[in-house]
Amino acid sequence: MFLEIKNLSVDLREFRLKDINLSIAEGEYFVLIGPTGSGKSVLLETIIGFYKENTGTIKLKDKLLNNVSPENRGIGIVYQDNTLFPNMNVYENIAYGAKNKFSDKEIEKKIDEIAKIMKIKHILHRNVTTLSGGEAQRTTLARALIVEPKIILMDEPFSALDISTQSKLTSLIKKIGAKYNTTFLHVTHNFNDIWNLADRVGVMKDGNIHQVGYVQDVFSRPENNFVADFVGVQNIFEGVITNINSERAKINLKNGIEITSSDIDCLNKINKNSYYKNEIKNNVKDEKEYIKVLIAIRPESIIFSNEKFESSARNQLKGKIIEIIESGPTVLVNVNVEGHIFKGLITKSSAENLNIKNNKDIYLSFKSLNVSIIDEYESFNTY
Amino acid sequence: MRSKFEIGFIVITIAITLLFFIVIGSMFLIPSFEGFINALFSEEMAFAITLTLYTSIISAILVILCCIPIAYTLSRYEFPLKSFFKIIIDLPMAFPEIVIGIAILMFLGSNGIGGYLDALGISLVFNSTGIIIAQFFVALPYAVRMLYSTFNYIDPRYEFVSRSLGYNETSTFFNITLPLAKNGLFATSIISLARCIGTFASVLFVGGGILMKTETLAVSMYLNLSTGDIDLAITSGILLVIISFITIAIMEKYAKESYLQ
Questions:
Q1: Which domain holds residue A327?
Q2: Within an 8 Å CB–CB cutoff, is residue B86 touching chain A?
Q3: Same-domain pairing of A23 and A109
Q4: pTM metric for this prediction
Q5: Which range, of A16-25, A360-369, B101-110, B244-253, averages the lowest pLDDT?
C-alpha cells in the first residue's frame, strides 16, 4: 500500500485517536468524513508529523515515518481557510516550497505551468490578501503541488467557498489527480465531494474509523447505526431476524411488519456464526433469543405508489402520509406504517403526479437488496 | 442618531482623557521659559538625556532578544510547570518597581553574588550596567506579555504549512513566524524602550542615583526635586513626557497595519 497506517493512537489529553488502521493506494482519492470533533484533522496532522504517535506506525511508500520530521515526509497539506503567507505575494507563496528543491529557472517554468492549469497566471503578482476564496484555494493547491508531494492531505478545502467555486475546484482537482497521478486524502463534511471525487471513503467518529469502503458500499451498506445516520440513511429500524438463508433474511419489526433483506455481506457474516444459525434453525420461539438487528433503508430507495402493484421489490407496505417536506427539487415524504415512520425521497413532479398530501394512504416498495442489516450497533434509542 | 449608551461612554472617555491631558499638561506651565531653556542646555541635563537613551536602547535590545524565545515558547510549547513559569515572568508587573530594585540590589550586592563578582573585578551595581539590569527586569515582563499575545494570534497552521513545504522549525520561524509578528514585535520594541526610559525606582536603587554618574532623566527629576531645583526637575519631567509621547505616536502610526488583520 502507498500510505499505510496501523494501530495508530495519539493522545492529546483533551482528545484521542484510537487504534486507527487505514491503507490508501497510490493515485487513490480517499475521502474521510465524520462529524465535527471526530478527529479527522488530528489524523491529517499526525500523518504529516505535527502530532506524535503514542503507538502504531505510519508508512509512506514502505518508509516508516514515525521519526521523520514534517519537512522530510514529502506530504503536502491544504487547509480549509486561507493559509497563504500574507507576507508574500501569490508568486512568492507558490515558489516558497520550490526554493528548497529546484533552481530559479526551474521554479519559473514550473510556476508558469502550474499557474496555467490552476488558472491563476493573471494573479501571480497580486497580494494574497486581495484574492477571492477560489483564487486563494487554487493558489494554495498550486503551492502544495509544486513541491511534488507524495500525497496531498486536504482539510475541508472547499468549505469556505461558494457552490459554484466549489464545483469548479472539484473539476480542477480531478484534472490534477489524473495528470500528476496524485494521491489525495481529503477530509470533508460535504457529500458532494464524496460523490464527485472519492474512490473510497472512511467514516470517523470519536477518534475511530468506523467504516472504510467504496462510496456506494458505505452509503448503501453502512456497518453500524452511526455510519447509517451520518451518511443520510434516514430509515433505521430495530427488528429481529426470524428466518435466514444464504440469499435473504426476514426481519420482523414491532407491530408485525416483516421486511426482507438481501444484504449478502451481512447474511454471510450471520450465517457463519453457528450460534445464530442454530438459534434460527431450531426455530426458537422465545423472542428474547432472536438476533436483534437494525435495518437501514436509504430514502431514495423507496418507491411510492397509490395502488399495490406486482414488482420485483420484495417489500411492499401500506401507510399514511404524515408529513411532506419540500427541499428544492425534491420532496421528503414521511409515512406512518404501523407506528414506524418511513421516509422516502421523490422529485417534486413525482409528488404532484401521485397527488401526495397529508393523511393520504400510500404504498411503499423497496427491494430487499436495498435493505442493509446492521448487526453491530450502539444503542437502539439513538434514533 | 447616537444612542444614550454610546453618548455616555464617549463622554466618560473624553472626560477622563481630558483630565489626563490637563494633569500632564500642567507640568508644562510650571517653569519659566528661560528656566526651562537653561535647564535643558545644562551639563547635568545633557548627561541625563545621554545616559537615559544609551542605557534604555541597550536594555530594550536585550529585552527584545530575550522576550522573543520566551514569548514563543509560552505561546507554542507545552512543558512541565509552564503555568508556574508564566506567573514568575509576569510577577514583576504586579508588584511595585521598588521591590524589583531591592531584589536586584540584594542579589547583585554584597549580600548576594556581589562579593564574588567584586573578586573578579566585575561591578554590576551603582553604575550604568546596574541601570541596564534594572531597566531590563522592569521592561521584560511587559514585552513578553505583548509578544506572547502576538504569537498566539498567529495561526500555527502557517508554520505547519511551511514545514510541509520542506522548511525546518528554525527556517520556518525566521521565514514565516517572525515576519508575521513584525508589527507586534515593533510595538513591543517601542513599549519596551518607553518602559526602560521611564523606569525610576529600580534604577534609583540598582544604579544608586549618583549625580552625573547614574543620573537618568527620571532619577534627575527626583534628585533635583530633593534639592529644590524645580526648573531642572520639571524639565526632566517634560522631556520624559515628550519622549514617551513620541514613542507612543510612532507605535500608533507604524504598528497599525497588520498582516493578520
A1: 299-367
A2: no
A3: yes
A4: 0.80
A5: B244-253
